Structures are given as structure tokens and as C-alpha cells.
Amino acid sequence: MAFPTSVNSQITDSVSQVNTKVLGDAPAMAMGNLFQATAQAIANAAHNAANAQQQTNILAEAATTACVKYLI
């Protein structure tokens, strides 16, 4: 510290070390959050694609049924 205080030097050292650790962990946490958000977005896209395919299949089945009705 720049000036003497009544706080124990071991406490100030501990706080400084914790602050340094938090700053050191920040990039890894940011990358972890990025990967998690990316995985969530990809999972949502896959779910939406599967849902759209299912809805298209239902529509195709309904159209086929309507066309077969006119053939009979």
C-alpha cells in the first residue's frame, strides 16, 4: 500500500491476491460463457429445424390425403 494503515498487512495481501485471481480467471470465465451461449444457440437452431421438418411432413401428409380423396 502507498501509505501506512491500521489494517493488518496479511489482510491486504490476501485481498490483493484474491483480486488478482479474479482478474486472472475473467478471460476463462468469458470464454466459458461464450461457449455455453453458442451451444445453447446451436441447440435451439437444431430444435427449430427438427420442428420445421415435422411441421412440413404433417403438411405434406395432409396434402397427400386431400389429393387421394379426389382420386377415389
Tell me about this structure.
The model has no long low-confidence stretch (mean pLDDT about 90). The chain starts with 8 loop residues before the first helix and ends with a helix. The relative contact order is 0.05. About 90% of the residues lie in helices and about 0% in strands. With about 70 residues, it is mainly alpha-helical. It has a domain of about 50 residues.
Low-confidence spans: pLDDT under 50, at least 5 residues? Answer: none
Instruction: List SSEs in N-to-C order.
Output: H
Assembly classification: single chain
Q: Count the DSSP helices.
A: 1
Report the average pLDDT across residues.
Answer: 88
- The residue fraction in helices comes out at over 70%
Question: What features would you highlight for this structure?
Answer:
72 residues, mainly alpha
Compact summary:
With 72 residues, this protein is mainly α. It is built from 1 helix and no strands.
Topology readout:
Elements: H1 9-71
